[in-house]
Fold:
Amino acid sequence: MAVRLITENCTGCNLCLRACPYGAIDIIEGKAQFNDNCTQCGACASACKFDAIRLETAYTREVDLDAYRGVWVIAEHLHGQFRRGTFELLGEGRRLADKLGVELAAVLLGYRIEGMAGDLIAHGADRVYLAQDPVLGHYRTGPHADVLSGLINRHKPEIVLISATPQGRDLAPRVAARLSAGLTADCTGLDIDESERLLVQTRPAFGGNLMATIVSRYARPQMATVRPGVMKALEPEASRTGEVVTVPVHLDERGMMTRVIEIVQQEADGRVNLQDAEIIVSGGRGLGKPENFALIRELAEALGGAVGASRAAVDAGWIPAYHQVGQTGRTVQPKLYVACGISGAVQHLAGMSSADCIIAINKDPAAPIFNIATYSIVGDLFEIVPALTRKLREG
Structure:
């Protein structure tokens, strides 16, 4: 991608000046001019109302693949805490970077977050690019995409990994479009083709019935969003050392297309978010009717866990969709997963098979879920689940 200035259309309105995060535009004699700080991020083109700045996409044959080196992970955080998927991506990024013999870097965007950089290094990053500005304090597509696109254009990593969270799924395609990069969404597996230095990306297709393998041969960087809960985070090493690179950015709130007025946080039924939960108790079609989810909630409460559900239970209207675990729901990786009345369709197994311990309760001894269960209980869940709850409450 290239940014082109059409001087005769410029009115000197200063909109591009306000939008540029890198201080790369000067107004000279009433006309905008780029200076040496320009990263080709494209923020100015989005802000211009007079068609004086245009984004021009390069053909893939023009990309110098050898100019791109390194693996990047885009860190995601909320209220001063990293999202779990960030550490999972660092663990996977470390493995990929070691295969390629390159550096692993993390990108940390926000405001007053300098104290968080050390955690990224402890979890595997060699370098952290830290960009801080009040405008970056809460996630917004525009400014985050502008800053990230500019960083990628300047430093040219060959691989960029982003969590497939609502935020990541919003940010990644915007950045990929700006960079004319290849993007594979919702990956569940990554590897390196060392003969061609290609990122081999695996993702479910056709409702989870097939697994597609995708490579981006001619575009750089190779970008992927990765489903949280499918990769393993490394144990943090407090002794690890790395470099924190401060990236100077200057964003003007007046140039932003959106404003954050208020943040309302509401967890499902006041319980733990599924993707952060260490214990999940899920119910399926075997519960028979929505009222019987009370058994699942009671067991989850006794265990100190969250309530999950199969797609069949959600489709039947027994429980809201934000409880759904599986291919079309949440992918989870708890320490303990208790499946009650869930047969184990492949779509459900794709979302929870990485749990450390799986307890399956089902009256059908041939239920597929028993094939991956750590402990299998064949019997009537209406007898077993209340008995487990009573035993836990008795201590």
The first strand starts at residue 2 and ends at 5. The chain has a mean pLDDT of 90. The chain has three domains: 2-56, 62-251, 269-394.
